[in-house]
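Please fill in the sequence for the structure shown.

STRUCTURE ENCODING:
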């Protein structure tokens, strides 16, 4: 997956280039609340502008259910891109994405110009990877396509995979290249000791990730809601904590696998518990710390305790490569964010290569102010998980090999 053509391998002067970005950004009342994904796309866009390409950007945004929906318009992204690039980004607002406005704007592009298409998911064919829409997208460019949307690379959609069948050249952008290099090297050729940290709510979401990483890493740390099913598999009382009863045997198997492979599998040794889940999420809430083997029957585990923080931090301190996906607790609540914050702080203080696997862990690291201390923060939660599982990502596989 690393041997792919990049934007450095293509000639774009005077050519219309279709670029798939990931502009699926958080937005409230028409205002972008986190522009990290937009900023991450800028190096590729600027490179194509510099080289005299005529740049046609496209992206999905949200999940519109019934075709075109004004609240899912990419108009605010076009406006912000214009500010960041210091030049106008023409917005083609066709509800059918490749409409008369888009065709006219593409035809009028001059070297170094940039335009943005409307939300690709305004077309229901997008998620079905329909050839008709794929051909329409390809018809706008001069046979050159660049995929820089790692966050959508695990989806075989028209704008990520289908379009590559109807262009002459398909390459990856700088962001995609960076994501693949960091995640690929971490998993396949890590500097050791290699520590993987998995958190989040459900074991089911990370079944194959756990199994795959056990074969790759030296130490696997399990925290967050998924830890309680592992603790239950050890025969511990977990009270009202999150439990996936169908995965208890799987957790036993993974602990046995770790022992057979001579790998460390670290679980919480103490737990922050509450009477109930906070409602609203940021409500003040009474907590206590108990041994992870003795969670009271009427209590619910919500975060890792101080002994666990010390245990996990010690493993991180001695690592040379760390991959982290998933928070240690209900980090959205300030009282229950201590474990996640401590792990983020430990990563910030180490000289190891630190890779944050997108999603909630990326949000947590940025929210807690440690984003600039990490080696790499992935822009794709689902994509990074599938990459860590060892799966081939359709949006990457479809790009031309260097050879």
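FILLED IN BY: designer on duty
SEQUENCE:
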């Amino acid at each position: 997956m690393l041997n792919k053509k990049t934007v450095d391998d293509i000639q774009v002067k005077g050519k219309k280039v279709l670029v798939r970005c990931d502009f699926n950004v958080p937005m409230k009342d028409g205002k972008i609340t986190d522009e990290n994904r937009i900023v991450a796309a800028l190096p590729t866009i600027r490179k194509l502008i510099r080289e005299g390409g005529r740049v046609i950007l496209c992206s999905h945004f949200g999940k519109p259910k019934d075709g075109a929906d004004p609240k899912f318009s990419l108009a605010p992204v076009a406006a912000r891109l214009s500010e960041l690039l210091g030049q106008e980004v023409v917005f083609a607002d066709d509800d059918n994405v490749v409409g008369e406005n888009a065709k006219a704007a593409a035809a009028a592009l001059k070297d170094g110009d940039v335009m943005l298409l409307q939300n690709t998911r305004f077309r229901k064919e997008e998620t079905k990877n329909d050839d008709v829409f794929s051909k329409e997208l390809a018809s706008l460019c001069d046979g050159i396509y660049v995929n820089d949307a790692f966050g959508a690379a695990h989806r075989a959609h028209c704008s990520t995979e289908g379009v590559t069948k109807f262009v002459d050249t398909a390459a990856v952008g700088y962001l995609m290249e960076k994501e693949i290099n960091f995640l690929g090297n971490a998993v396949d050729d890590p500097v050791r000791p290699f520590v993987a940290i998995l958190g989040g709510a459900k074991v089911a979401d990370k079944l194959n990730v756990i199994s795959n990483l056990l074969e790759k890493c030296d130490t696997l740390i399990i925290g967050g809601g998924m830890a309680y099913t592992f603790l239950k598999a050890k025969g511990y009382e977990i009270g009202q904590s999150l439990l996936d009863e169908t995965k208890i045997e799987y957790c036993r198997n993974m602990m046995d696998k770790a022992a057979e492979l001579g790998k460390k599998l670290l679980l919480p040794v103490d737990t922050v518990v509450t009477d109930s889940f906070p409602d609203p999420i940021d409500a003040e809430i009474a907590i206590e710390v108990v041994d992870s083997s003795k969670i009271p029957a009427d209590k619910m585990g919500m975060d890792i305790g101080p002994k666990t923080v010390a245990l996990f931090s010690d493993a991180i301190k001695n690592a040379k490569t760390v991959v982290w996906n998933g928070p240690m607790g209900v980090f959205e609540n300030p009282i229950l964010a201590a474990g996640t914050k401590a792990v983020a702080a430990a990563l910030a203080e180490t000289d190891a290569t630190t890779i944050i696997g997108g999603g909630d862990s990326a949000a947590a690291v940025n929210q807690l102010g440690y984003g600039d201390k990490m080696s790499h923060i992935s822009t794709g939660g689902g994509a990074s998980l599938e990459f860590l599982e060892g799966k081939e990502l359709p949006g990457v596989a479809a790009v031309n090999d260097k050879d």
